C-alpha cells in the first residue's frame, strides 16, 4: 500500500461524476407506440425505461451501433424481450441491456407486441455506454483484468489474477490481501479485505465491523461472478464516489475471488480431486472449503453472497435463494428473504435486472436443504446470505447472446450489479441484520425446538406475473429425518475425534478434531470422551455432522441427554459431565476441577463457582448470586444469561475465545488473565456495574 | 506444482497491455501460410459469435500463435482448451503439423455430465487422451481438403467420413464444422458442434445443474 495523492483523487472525482439519463424527444405517438423511452448508463449495462402501452403482452428492445453523429455503423438487433414476470411493478417497465462492449455507442428503440403483433417502435434514444471503470491515467484505477483487456474473449487466468490482486494491494491503502489457504495443488486462495481509510488490522478487528463477504468462484466452470468480483475490488479500492467511501467507512468488505483455483484453471466444476466444493462446506474434507469456513470463523461476516452460473435457460437473469435448511434460525431466513425479495426485487425493477427465486420457471429439483451447500452452511452459522446464479445462456429474453462475448459480459455485469446492491443492502440494513443475527445466536444457544437432518423452509409463491411466482420445491423434512427431542450434547470417542480418516485428498486428510476446530465449536474433554454441547451458536449444524442420523455426517456421535431437569434443592457439586436443562436449582453450584457444566433453560439461585473446570457452557439461564469461572481448560461460553450478582471470568486457559454474548449482568463484570481474550461476537452484554480488564468493551 | 503469491509489486495493466499488443500484431510466418493480404478468414455459422474484425482474438491475430495459445482466445472452446492442456497431449505429440476438430463448450455440455467430465479431467487421464486423439488429425488440413478427401483418420486410429452437404461439412455422423480454418503455428483448427469418439453420452440434457 502507498499514500494516495490528493490531486489524483480530485481528478478522478471529476471524472467519475458522469451519471446521465438521456430521453427520447417528445412527439405525437402513434397507436400502440412506446413513448417516454429513457436510457441510463451504468457499469456494463444500460437501463431502459418507458411508458407502458395498454394491451401489450411483451416488449422488444432493439439496439443499433451508431457513431457520434448517430449514423448506424452496424445492424439493428433485437437484444431483449421484456415480460411482465421480470419485475414486481409491471406498470413501470425497465430492462437492463447488457452484453455490448462497454464504452461503445448505440441507439435503442422499444416496441410493444400484442401477442405476436408488433407495434410501432418508440423514438430512438442514443447514448455512449460507460467505459470500463477507472481512469486510464490514474494509478490503481488504470488496472484492468485480463477479461476486460481481451474484451471477454479470455477469462482472467490464475497468474493474471495474482498480479492484478497484488497490484491493487500495492496501490490502495484501503486493501489488504490475505491468503486464507491453499488449494490441493497449492494455489493460493486470496481474499481482499477492504475498508476505509484502511481495513482493520486483525481478523477480530474486522469482525467487529460486521463485514460483508462475497464468495466468487466455487465451481471452476462458472467463472462469470469471479470477473465481477475482480472489477468490484478495483472500484472499492480506488473509487472516490461518496457512496463507496460511505460503505467502506461503515464496514469491511471481504472478497474471495477464487477458492477453487485448480478447478478454474482446468475449467472443471469440482476441485482437482473431482470434489464438488459446494457439497463440502459442512464436512470440509477439502482444503478449499476448510479455508473458507476457517475464514468465516475468524472474520465473522454477518452477510454473504455466493456466486454461480445456472444452465436453466428459462430462469430469470439472477436466480437467488436464501438459506432454507430448517435448522437455520427463523430470523436469519427472514432477513435473507428480505434481502432478496425486499431489496433485490425492488432494485432489480428500478435498474432492469430480473432476480427470481432459484429454480424459477421450471427449475426442477434444485435449491433444497443440503447443509453441505454454502448457502445453508452460512445460514447455520447465522449469516444472512443468498446464492446467486447467473443464467448461463441468453435464454428466451436475451436473443443476441449467441455471441460468446455478449453472453459473458451480460453475466459478469449482472453479477457486478448484484454484489454492489448487496453492499448497499448491507449498508442500509445493518441494524436489522445484526438484530436477526443476535436473535438467532441466542435462539440456537438455547437449544430449544426440534432438529431436522434434511428439509427446507418453504419459499412462498407470489401470484403471477411476478419474479417470485415459481419458487423451488417445498422440500419438507421426511419424518425419519426429524428429531423432536434434541440432545444436550454429542459424545465422541478418542478414535472418532482424533482418529485417522480417509475422506479427503490423499495425504492431506484432516481429523474430525481439526474440522470441528475450523467450524469453531466448543469441545470439552472429560475423562476419555470429547463432548460437543448443543448450546452453541451453531446448534443447527452440529447434529448434522455428529449425529448418526445425519445424512452426510462426520461421525456417529453418542447423543447425551440432560443429566438433571426439574427441581434440585441444596448444594450441587459437578464432577464429570453435567447437563442441566429446564432445571431449577436452589443452592450453591460447584464445578470441580476437570468437570463440565452445560445448562439451558435453567434457573440457579446460589453462587456458581467453576475452578479449573474442563468446560463451562451456560445459555438461556438465570443465575442469582456471583458467577465465577476461572482456570477452565477447554471451553467457556456464557450466552444470554441473566445474572444478578458479579461475574468473574478470569485466568481461563482455553486456546479458543471464551464467549460472553448477549448477557444481562446486574452487577460488575470482570475478566483478567485469560489466555485467549473473550469475545462477545459483536452482541453486546448489558452490564449495570463496571466492566473491567479483558471484558471492558464487551 | 507451486504458485507462490506475487510479493513483488507489479503493474498488471501494463503487462496485459503488452500481451494484448503482442496478440493483435499479426504478421506472416514461413510455417503458417496466411492467405494473401495477411488476413485469415474463417467460415461457418458460429464465426460471428467469436472475436472478429480487429477484436482481440480475431482469426488473423491468432495465426502466429502456438496452437495452445490460440485456443485460449476462442471463447467457445474453454472445455476443449483446458482438456488439451490438462492432458499434456500437444506437448507429447511433437507433431510437425496438426489439425484440430475442436468441439465447442455446448458440444461438451450436450455429451457429458459434470460428474463424467470432472472424472475424466481429474482421474481418467488415459481415457481423456484417447478422447482428445479422436479430435486430432496429422498435418495441417484445410476444411476443403478434408471434404475433398471424403475421409480422415484421427490420431486414435479411427477413420471418419467427411461429407459435405451444401455449406455444411460433417465429420462422422454428427459433428458439423461450425467455424472452420483457423490458423495457428503449424496447426489448423476447425470448430465442430459434437464430441467425437466412442464414449457414451451422460448429459441428461436438462441444463438444471444444481448450484
From TrEMBL, chain A:
What's a single GO BP term from this record?
Answer: polysaccharide catabolic process
What would be one Gene Ontology cellular-component term for the protein?
extracellular space
Give cofactor(s), names only: Zn(2+)
Sequence intervals crossing the membrane: none
Record keywords: Carbohydrate metabolism, Carboxypeptidase, Glycosidase, Hydrolase, Metalloprotease, Polysaccharide degradation, Protease, Signal, Zinc
| Signal sequence extent | 1-23
In its keyword annotation, does this UniProt entry include Magnesium?
Answer: no
- Annotated PROSITE patterns: FN3, PEPTIDASE_M14
Where does the Peptidase M14 domain start and stop, copy by copy? 154-391
Family according to the record: Belongs to the peptidase M14 family.
The name this protein carries in UniProt is Zinc carboxypeptidase
UniProtKB/TrEMBL annotation, chain B:
Establish whether keyword Hydrolase is in the entry.
no
The residues covered by the FAS1 domain are 64-196
Q: Which UniProt keywords apply?
A: Signal
What is one term from the GO cellular component aspect held by the record? extracellular space
- By its UniProt entry, which InterPro entries does this protein fall under? Adhesion/Biosynth-related, FAS1_dom_sf, FAS1_domain
Superkingdom of this protein's organism: Bacteria
Signal peptide residues are 1-28
Any Pfam family the entry gives: Fasciclin
Q: Does the keyword Signal apply?
A: yes
Protein name according to UniProt:
Uncaracterized surface protein containing fasciclin (FAS1) repeats
Amino acid at each position: 500500500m502507498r499514500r494516495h495523492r490528493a490531486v489524483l483523487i480530485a481528478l478522478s472525482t471529476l471524472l467519475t461524476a458522469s451519471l446521465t439519463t438521456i430521453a427520447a424527444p417528445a412527439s405525437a405517438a402513434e397507436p400502440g407506440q412506446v413513448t417516454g423511452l429513457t436510457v441510463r448508463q451504468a457499469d456494463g449495462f444500460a437501463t431502459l425505461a418507458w411508458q407502458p402501452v395498454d394491451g401489450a403482452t411483451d416488449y422488444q428492445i432493439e439496439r443499433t451501433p451508431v457513431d457520434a453523429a448517430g449514423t448506424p455503423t452496424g445492424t439493428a438487433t433485437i437484444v431483449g424481450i421484456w415480460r411482465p414476470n421480470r419485475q414486481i411493478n409491471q406498470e413501470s417497465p425497465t430492462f437492463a441491456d447488457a452484453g455490448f462492449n462497454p464504452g461503445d455507442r448505440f441507439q435503442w428503440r422499444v416496441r410493444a407486441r400484442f401477442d405476436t403483433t408488433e407495434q410501432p417502435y418508440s423514438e430512438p434514444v442514443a447514448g455512449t455506454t460507460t467505459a470500463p471503470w477507472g481512469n486510464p491515467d490514474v494509478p490503481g484505477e488504470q488496472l484492468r483484468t485480463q477479461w476486460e483487456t481481451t474484451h471477454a474473449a479470455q477469462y482472467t487466468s490464475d497468474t493474471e489474477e495474482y498480479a492484478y490482486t497484488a497490484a491493487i494491494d500495492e496501490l490502495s491503502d484501503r486493501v489488504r490481501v490475505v491468503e486464507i489457504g491453499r488449494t490441493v495443488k497449492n494455489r493460493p486462495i486470496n481474499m481482499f479485505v477492504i475498508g476505509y481509510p484502511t481495513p482493520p488490522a486483525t481478523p477480530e478487528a474486522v469482525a467487529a465491523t460486521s463485514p460483508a463477504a462475497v464468495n466468487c468462484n466455487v465451481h471452476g466452470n462458472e467463472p462469470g461472478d469471479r470477473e465481477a468480483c475482480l472489477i468490484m475490488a478495483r472500484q472499492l479500492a480506488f473509487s472516490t464516489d461518496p457512496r463507496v467511501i460511505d460503505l467502506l467507512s461503515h464496514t469491511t468488505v471481504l472478497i474471495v475471488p477464487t477458492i477453487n483455483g485448480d478447478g478454474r484453471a482446468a475449467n472443471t466444476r469440482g476441485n482437482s480431486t473431482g470434489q464438488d466444493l459446494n457439497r463440502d462446506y459442512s464436512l470440509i474434507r477439502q482444503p478449499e472449503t476448510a479455508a473458507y469456513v476457517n475464514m468465516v470463523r475468524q472474520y465473522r461476516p454477518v452477510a454473504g453472497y455466493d456466486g454461480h452460473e445456472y444452465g436453466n435457460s428459462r430462469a430469470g437473469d439472477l436466480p437467488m435463494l436464501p438459506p432454507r435448511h430448517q435448522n437455520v434460525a427463523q430470523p436469519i431466513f427472514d432477513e435473507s428473504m428480505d434481502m432478496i425479495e425486499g431489496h433485490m426485487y425492488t432494485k432489480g425493477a428500478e435498474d432492469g435486472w430480473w432476480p427470481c427465486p432459484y429454480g424459477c420457471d421450471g427449475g426442477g429439483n434444485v435449491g433444497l436443504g443440503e447443509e453441505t451447500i454454502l448457502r445453508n452452511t452460512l445460514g447455520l452459522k447465522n449469516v444472512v446470505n443468498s446464492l446467486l446464479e447467473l443464467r448461463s445462456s441468453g435464454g428466451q429474453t436475451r436473443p443476441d447472446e449467441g455471441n460468446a462475448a455478449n453472453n459473458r459480459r451480460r453475466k459478469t455485469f449482472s453479477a457486478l450489479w448484484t454484489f454492489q446492491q448487496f453492499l448497499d443492502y448491507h449498508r442500509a440494513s445493518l441494524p436489522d441484520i445484526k438484530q436477526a443475527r443476535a436473535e438467532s445466536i441466542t435462539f440456537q444457544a438455547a437449544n430449544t425446538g426440534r432438529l431436522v437432518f434434511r428439509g427446507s423452509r418453504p419459499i412462498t409463491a407470489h401470484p403471477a406475473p411476478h419474479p417470485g411466482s415459481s419458487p423451488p420445491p417445498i422440500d419438507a423434512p421426511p419424518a425419519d429425518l426429524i428429531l423432536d427431542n434434541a440432545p444436550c450434547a454429542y459424545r465422541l470417542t478418542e478414535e472418532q475425534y482424533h482418529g485417522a480418516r480417509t475422506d479427503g485428498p490423499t495425504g492431506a486428510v484432516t481429523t474430525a478434531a481439526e474440522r470441528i476446530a475450523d467450524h469453531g465449536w466448543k469441545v470439552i474433554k472429560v475423562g476419555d470422551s470429547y463432548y460437543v454441547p448443543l448450546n452453541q451458536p451453531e446448534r443447527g449444524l452440529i447434529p448434522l455432522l455428529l449425529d448418526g442420523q445425519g445424512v452426510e455426517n462426520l461421525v456417529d456421535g453418542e447423543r447425551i441427554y440432560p443429566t438433571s431437569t426439574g427441581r434440585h434443592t441444596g448444594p450441587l457439586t459437578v464432577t464429570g459431565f453435567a447437563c442441566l436443562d429446564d432445571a431449577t436449582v436452589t443452592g450453591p453450584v460447584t464445578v470441580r476441577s476437570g468437570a463440565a457444566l452445560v445448562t439451558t433453560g435453567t434457573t440457579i439461585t446460589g453462587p456458581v463457582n467453576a475452578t479449573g473446570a474442563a468446560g463451562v457452557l451456560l445459555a438461556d439461564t438465570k443465575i442469582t448470586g456471583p458467577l465465577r469461572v476461572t482456570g477452565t481448560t477447554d471451553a467457556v461460553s456464557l450466552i444470554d444469561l441473566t445474572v444478578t450478582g458479579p461475574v468473574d471470568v478470569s485466568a481461563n486457559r482455553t486456546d479458543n475465545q471464551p464467549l460472553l454474548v448477549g448477557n444481562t449482568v446486574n452487577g460488575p463484570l470482570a475478566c483478567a488473565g485469560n489466555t485467549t481474550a473473550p469475545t462477545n461476537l459483536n452482541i453486546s452484554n448489558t452490564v449495570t456495574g463496571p466492566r473491567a480488564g479483558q471484558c471492558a468493551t464487551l | 506444482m507451486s504458485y507462490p503469491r506475487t510479493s513483488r509489486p507489479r503493474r498488471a495493466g501494463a503487462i496485459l497491455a503488452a500481451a494484448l499488443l503482442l496478440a493483435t500484431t499479426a504478421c506472416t510466418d514461413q510455417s503458417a501460410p496466411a492467405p494473401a493480404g495477411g488476413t485469415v478468414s474463417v467460415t461457418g455459422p458460429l464465426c460471428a459469435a467469436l472475436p472478429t474484425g480487429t477484436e482481440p482474438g480475431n482469426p488473423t491475430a491468432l495465426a502466429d500463435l502456438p496452437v495452445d495459445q490460440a485456443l485460449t482466445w476462442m471463447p467457445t472452446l474453454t472445455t476443449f482448451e483446458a482438456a488439451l492442456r490438462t492432458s499434456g497431449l500437444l506437448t507429447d505429440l511433437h507433431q510437425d503439423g496438426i489439425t484440430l476438430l475442436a468441439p465447442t463448450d455446448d458440444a461438451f455440455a450436450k455429451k457429458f455430465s459434470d460428474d463424467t467430465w470432472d472424472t475424466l479431467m481429474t482421474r481418467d487421464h488415459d481415457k481423456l487422451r484417447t478422447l482428445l486423439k479422436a479430435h486430432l488429425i496429422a498435418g495441417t488440413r484445410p476444411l476443403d481438403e478434408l471434404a475433398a478427401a471424403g475421409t480422415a483418420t484421427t490420431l486414435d486410429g479411427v477413420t471418419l467420413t467427411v461429407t459435405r452437404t451444401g455449406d455444411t461439412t460433417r465429420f462422422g455422423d454428427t459433428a458439423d464444422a461450425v467455424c472452420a480454418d483457423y490458423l495457428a503455428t503449424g496447426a489448423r483448427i476447425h470448430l465442430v458442434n459434437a464430441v467425437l469418439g466412442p464414449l457414451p453420452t451422460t448429459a441428461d440434457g436438462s441444463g438444471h445443474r444444481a448450484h
